[in-house]
Amino acid sequence: MRSFIIFILISIFTINFSFSQSRYRFQSRFFKKERHRIFISVGATNFLGDLGGANRIGSGKFSLRDFDLQAIKPAFQLGYNYRMSKFLALRNAFTYAWLSGNDAYTKEIFRQNRNLNFRTPVYELSSALEVIWEIKRKGHQYYLKGVKGWTNYRYATYIYGGVALSYFNSKAKYGDQWYALRPLSTEGEGLVPTRKRYSPIQFSIPLGIGCKVRVSRFIEIGIEYTARILFTDYIDDVSTTYFDPQALKNANQDNGDIAAHIANPALQQKITDPLYTSTLAGQQRGDPRNRDSYLAVMVSMYYTIGRGFIPRLRNTHRLKYR
Question: pTM of the entire structure?
Answer without folding.
Answer: 0.79
